[in-house]
Structure formats: C-alpha cells, structure tokens
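hi! just following up on the protien thing from before. the input was this:
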Amino acid sequence: MRKGLMLLQTDRELLYYLHANKIARVAQLRRDLKGFHCKQTAYKRFARLRKEGLIEIRGGIDERRLMLLNISDKGFNTYVNCGDALRCELKSKSPAHDLDLVDIRNRISRSQRTAIYFTENELQTWGHLKQKAEIKPFIDIRCDGLVGFQTQDEVVYLALEYEASRKADSRYRDLFLKYYAESEIGGVLYICKSEFMLRMLRERERAAYGKYTPKFFYTTFENLMTREELVFEAFNGSKIRFGPLKASVDSVETSQPMQKLTSDITY
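and the predicted 3d structure came back as:
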C-alpha cells in the first residue's frame, strides 16, 4: 500500500463485510457498519480505499443507478484472506438477489433469537468451517445462509434459502428432495419474493412430503422487512418465531459457530 494511508479498523470491517456479502449499496453499508454512519466520512473512506485498489465501485443495476461496492482481489488477498480460503469469489453473479440477501442478513441478525449468521460466501470460502461436522452439511448443500436460532436450551442451526424469482419446476423438486434427504439439517428458512410464490412452494412441499415433519418454514421478503416480529410458518401451521428486533447486531456471531445442530426444531 502506498505510504500515507492508515487502514482503520472500520476499513477492515468494511472489507470483511464486502467479502461476506459480495456486493452492497452505500445505504446498506452505512446502516450496518458503525464507522460509516456519517455520509461525508463514508464517501471519503470509499474514495481512499478505491484509490488504493482495495474496493471496486460501479453503477447500480436499476434505474436509480445507486453506487454498488465490492471488495477487490487486492483487498481480499491483503487484508481478508488468512491462507484459509478454499475459493475467491469477490463479485456477485446475481446482484439483485444478493442485494436482497444483504437486507435479509441485517433483518434476521437483529432478532433477539439470532445467535449466528453465516452468508453463503463465508460458508463456501473458509476451510476451517468445513472441518466442523455441524457446519459441513450446510456447506455441501450450498444454502444461501446459515442461521443459528437460539432456543431456551441451545442454538439450532437452520439453512436459509431466498427465492427472488420463479424458476423451473425441476429446481424446486430438487431443492425439496436434497433437504429432506439431508438428516443433519433440521429446518430451512425459506424466504419468497412474493406471496404467490410462497403459497405455490408451500403447497408443492405439502403434496410431496405431507406425511413427514415439515422442513421448510416460509415467509415473504416484504413480511420479513416490515413486520416487527419475524415468524416463519410451515405447511402444517408449525411456526418458528424469532421474536422482536433488537437495536444492535453486535452480539450476533459471524465467524465462529457456537453449538451443535440438533435434530428437532423448537417451535
């Protein structure tokens, strides 16, 4: 790095954040990272980090053309990768989908019952996670995220999937099959972009697996983002309640797992 720029702790947190999410809008960064709440300070740091080649900035994907950021190869290899990386995926291949996941992560992490949240990129990147028996099934199944749900006695690991657009029927058939075949994953938080999609998928699961204990617990993206209490509901009416939101996400673990997955989900 050129002499003269001192990398702050908040800058390092930004690099870790961009790697975990692969993409972010400025508003998301300013919301989620304490050191960037001030707009003027945030833009000055973005400009310096871009000049040093640690981050990349480009135009948005919609008509608003809002600024999007991602970490660069230099930023990842110099400050994030500790030699444990199994892959190096630094840019989103599905920006709209992944930008929604940034908001999903923030919302779920603010729940009082969320103890852990790993993004898909964290799960697929870090080798030490794959060495943990309770984490490996989530890595192998390539879920969009892993959430540690705090019950009264323990932390239960749940997969997270986000369905932003309609896919081929075979995609859903394969998705249900692989999760029902994986005994080490006790449940899936399934977030759908629309109410129509939610009802369609929930009925398909019921038709195919109605005689089994349900594995998928549904909500819509809108409900997740607007309701004070986060509730996911299965085809048989069973619910996972995350409780009201908390003001800070500081206590949510994003780097080390806490406890082993249990087979049963507490509703």
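The radius of gyration is 19 Å.
DSSP finds eleven helices and ten strands in the chain.
cheers
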